Amino acid sequence: MPASVTSIAFLAANCGALEIIGITSASAKYGLAALHFYWIGAVPAMVFLALFMMPIYTKSQALTVPDFLRVRYNDATHLFSSCCLAARMALVAGISLYAISAVLHVFLGWTFSRVSVLACSVVLCYTALGGLRATIYTEILQLVLTIAGVLPLTYKILHDFDGIAGIRNRLPHEMAHIWTTLTWMNPTGAKLDRTGVIVGLGAVLSFGYWCTDFLIIQRALTARNLRNAIQTPLIAAVFKMCFPILLVVPGTAAAILIVKPSGTMQFDQALPAMMSHYYGTGLLALGLCAILASLMSGLAGNISALSVVWTQDLYRAHIQRTATDKHYLLMGRVATVVACGLSMATAYIALQFNNLMDYQTLVFSLFDAPLFASFLLGMFTTWATPVAGLWGLIIGVLAATSHNFAVRTGAIHYGSDLLASFYGAIYGFTAGLAVNVLVSLFTKRKSIDALSGLTYFTGPAREKLATSSLVLAGLVLIACITLNFIFR
Fold first, then answer.
1. Helix %, strand %, coil % of the chain (to 5)
2. Which pLDDT band holds residue 248 (cuts at 50, 70, 90)?
3. How confident is the model at residue 18 (pLDDT cuts 50, 70, 90)?
4. Residue 475, Cβ neighbours under 10 Å: how many?
């Protein structure tokens, strides 16, 4: 596909429940600090992915993200990473389904069971029959609907509050800034601190998500050639940098206007509540379509990716290696049905959280942070060994999981669930990286010839990046730094 299609699909694959309900919810709870998810937690990692990792992904000829770990490390690492990604995708699909249920309950009063069956039935039809191409083009259509439905709300709020400055003036001081109110390190007494944001979100979670997430990498790999694959995240980063105006503005306005008498609010219902407050009947219908489009997009993308991971990385690689393409296609469709059932089951876990962003960040800290440590050493060193890749990933996941268990049982206390996930990501990444380095000192590495095309320093001479890509990357980073300074 051309870069114009893949870049929009790349952005659309991220604009599901996390983006629409999650960011608005986080804005209502944390204020303008939710901007960190864009200008620290997205744009820099997207640029790094484009310039450094997409060339390696493309040249490795790996069919999926776990498949890269197979060719770089070994089958055992591939198997464990595939299981981790399958679990992660099932949990994230449940988040999307829960969000759909929450929205339709607010607008129509529908029960969770009714919504689950209806949503999964619709998604099942076009993912099972149309495959990845149908999913990508549907995601693009859903992104257009999302913007069309939310844009009038942002306009009305900005007009009502006399611009962003008016919103900031009415927010509590700690919610009206993104940097000046944060201490460098205060995990137990603050909702957020700079160490958690810069290291946990900016250096670990964001890079772990954008550089290893199978769902979005899959969109970039459908590009026609390497140049288009590199341009895909860069073009998407431009839109991603501007996207928060659609979601952070309604979320912060909800913190001002829609607060329970007790001083609390159901944060995941912030966007539907703001639409009910500002929209008439016609616009309310459009807004409902926009929310459902984004949520269905996230649900479909994760269900599609989960079926691919099962079929390609687990079933074909480790169970049935010699079947026909027709057999694997049938297995993929069966896996899609099973994935829909799993999403219904995992949606009940999301019911335990009052903020989808808190929950989804927790999921990413458990799986993405340790995975990124293995990818980082695998792509940018030649000495990381196959045994080290496996044990680094296992210990990283165990460290992040143990930290979360300690938080849930009260052994460790944090100022917020979000900050706990940031620090959990740091621990998982650090443990995985340290074990990978340590084990590599005592185990056999692969030969340079075996690593040809799999690392940044081996294989054919690296193609010179197009000047247009370098200029665009530089402009995006400069703009991102400027925005952080303006809203500091």
1. 80, 0, 20
2. very high
3. low
4. 12
The residue type found at 152 is: P
Tell me the residue type at 462.
R
Three-state SS at 266 = coil
**The two three-digit tokens of residue 271, written as one number:** 């966007």
Q: Are 318 and 73 in contact (CB under 8 A)?
A: no
Query: d(Cα 411, Cα 428) in Å, to the nearest integer?
Result: 18
pTM (predicted TM-score): 0.86
What distance separates the 2 farthest-apart alpha carbons in the chain?
67
Q: Report how many domains make up the chain.
A: 1
CA distances from 225 to 5, 17, 155, 232, 319 (A): 13, 30, 39, 11, 32
Structure tokens at 350: 């999301």
pLDDT band at 250; cut points 50, 70, 90: very high
- Mean pLDDT in the chain? 84
CA–CA gap between residue 364 and residue 209 (Å, rounded):
7
Domain hosting 274: range is: 3-486
Q: How many helices and strands in the chain, by DSSP H and E?
A: 22, 0
DSSP classification of residue 165: H
* Torsion of Cα atoms, 325 then 331 then 337 then 341, to 10°: -140
CATH of the domain at 197: 1.20.1730.10
Residue 198, CA distances (Å) to 39, 201, 243, 483 in order: 11, 6, 21, 16
What secondary structure letter does DSSP report for 321?
Answer: S
3-state SS, residue 455: coil
Two structure tokens written together for 55: 């060339």
Kindly list the distances between the CA atom of residue 42 and the CA atoms of 68, 202, 234, 295, 354, in Å, as whole numbers in the listed order: 23, 8, 11, 20, 23
Q: Is 441 helix (H, G, I), strand (E, B) or coil?
A: coil
Residue 218 structure tokens: 């899959």
Segment 391-439, tens digit of pLDDT: 999 999 999 999 999 998 989 999 888 999 999 999 999 999 999 999 9
pLDDT tens per residue across span 199-240: 999 999 999 888 888 778 877 877 878 888 888 899 999 989
Spatial distance between the Cα atoms of 57 and 69, rounded to a whole number of angstroms: 11
CB contact at 8 A, 21 and 98: no
430 class by beta-carbon count within 10 Å (0-12 exposed, 13-18 middle, 19+ buried): middle
Task: Calculate helix-pair angle for 112-161, 3-14, nearest 10 degrees.
Answer: 100
Whole-angstrom distance, CA of residue 13 vs CA of residue 299: 10
Q: How many CA atoms lie within 13 A of 42 on its CB side?
A: 29
Residue 157, burial from CB neighbour count under 10 angstroms (0-12, 13-18, 19+): buried
Task: Match 């045994």 to its residue by tokens.
Answer: 387
What amino acid occupies position 299?
A: L
Question: 30-39, 107-116, 237-246, 311-320 — which is least confidently predicted?
Answer: 107-116
